[in-house]
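Continuing the series of single-chain predictions for the mutant panel. This is the parent chain; the variants come on the following pages.
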Amino acid sequence: MKIKQMIAVLLTAAIVAGSLWCGEVCAANDDNTFIVGFDAEFPPYGYKDDSGEYVGFDLDLADEVCKRRGWTLVKQPIDWDSKDMELSSGSIDCIWNGFTMNGREEDYTWSVPYVDNSQVVIVKRDSGISKLTDLTDKVVAVQADSSALAAFTGEDATEENIALCKSFADLQQVGDYNSAFMNLESGMVDAICMDIGVANYQVDSRGDDFIILEEQVSSEAYAIGFKLGNEELRDSINEVLKEMQEDGTFDSIAAEWGLTDCICLEQSFTEEGKSGTLGDIGEEEESLETAPVSGANKVDIMSVVSQLGKGMLATLAIFAFTLLFSMPLGLLLTFVRMSRFKLLQWIAKIYISIMRGTPLMLQLLVVFFGPYYLFGMRLSNTYRFYAVIIGFSLNYAAYFAEIYRSGIQSIPKGQREAAAVLGYSRVQTFFKIIFPQMVKRVMPPVTNEVITLVKDTSLAFALAYTEMFTLAKQIAAANTSILPLFVAGVFYYVFNFIVAFVMEAVEKKLDYYR
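Parent structure:
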């Protein structure tokens, strides 16, 4: 009875968590909604603060725009690699997060540039590197699909930067800025290149161990990216930005985030043809310095635990709903796989082969973006959570199906024959004789899959669903500390310990099937 109660508590908590999440999004997802897509690991432009709220310079600007337009702002963290699919499918209305327009002018409809940003190089203070030419034969790290990467390898990269890049021992790409600093701190790379606004925030937060080289790699413009052709929304935002610039609100928000020296909104509005080009901004580059941002070296572990506890509910929802749907679906798939009809057998085989032979992350992307790209269907932002559950359930059903099939086929044929002699029907034979023994025999491999599922929930980040590990990365980026990742590891271990304990208890209950 205790085991049943524990399982019931887990399922109830998951349902409540899922309902709360869906209810929160549904409440905001109306015709007056403005959904801003942003990278939640990109301070000071967008990140999660100690109270668990998404904050940042760009998000404050978006909030002010929504207040003036009477819109409801939805802050939607996205996987940066999927930003184009998010925008094309209508899951977000714009990309507003220190988004570089240089080199992407023809790919999006742009607002006027509002930040004149530069790419700078950060090194350890005691590295002996003081200028760009000192990077020869050094290992340099940049964020994947970033302006820094484009500055060295893009089509518009200058001859000087291309030559500089060729002089590196290696140019490595990392997933986020926090990973870049972890590589630099551990000595795995000699230098990292990033936006000056982010660089100032990170260096100030991490103490005196790092310095920013005075020479800049490139200058660039930040703007808001809209879906190509969405000029109506672009013009509406530009109008509000101009109002904010004229009444001083924009400058005030920039000052709060220490970005006064970087803004170029006034110059953008005075440039000819207000089509979203930067003109000659940055032609005469000066060293940009931002006001110091309060450091975040001292991480409040209780605050981290509290925030991750909320993320744990999201992880629990994915875990419980996936099991709820995938286990019975796997049994149904087993019946199809063992059918007497060859066609049905082959359909099941092909399905299982695809699910087991392709990455789960790819399957999640297909489930979420497939309806739009295949059928032109525009789905609401609430579909994000359902897509996660559908993708996980379809994937794990394939694995459970093969586990069930192995358990069924391990039962001696003589038991079926004996049941037939005793007058049992095929259905009675399966559920009263075969099924109980199968459950006992497949418990160890099922336990392995369940434990793997706990860890696989982190792949939900591919659809920008903020579960626990994604939340840990966001907190780590905001606090410039690796501690939240270790705390998340403890959460996963405790979760898996409880799962293993429950599964072992169930296995002991079935000991009479020997």
